Predict the structure of Lactoylglutathione lyase.
Amino acid sequence: MSRMIFINFPVNDLAASMAFYTSIGFENNPHFTDETAACMVWSEAIHVMLLTHDKWRTFTSRPIPPSTSGEVMIALTFDSREAVDGITETAAANGGTADINPVQDHGFMYSRTIADPDGHVWEPFWMDPAAIPQ
């Protein structure tokens, strides 16, 4: 079996979260989706499990952090600066928040940060490895 990552997120509104993730390019896997959870697929290796708070609590007794706290920042690569800008703008237009951190432009690398409707943080970025300063 190939290595995969399943990122689990507690969400307030499953339908709204599914709509948000669909808008930024994820696809729903109906085999792992019901009224309590949805599997949203970014690639063959990366999946996001959106879990209602009740479903989340079946996995852990740890408290659900408030949407204003930092937990993790998940970075995804894109093919261009324009693609980074595009997903950031799409996220903001579909219930997310754009640029929760300052835009980072290092010439060889460009990134922005978005939060989904529940405050989970993503960092879309582009990098040109050949241009990294030596």
Q: What stands out?
A: The beta strands are 5-11, 27-29, 37-41, 46-52, 73-77, 97-98, 104-105, 109-111, 114-115, 121-127. The first strand starts at residue 5 and ends at 11.
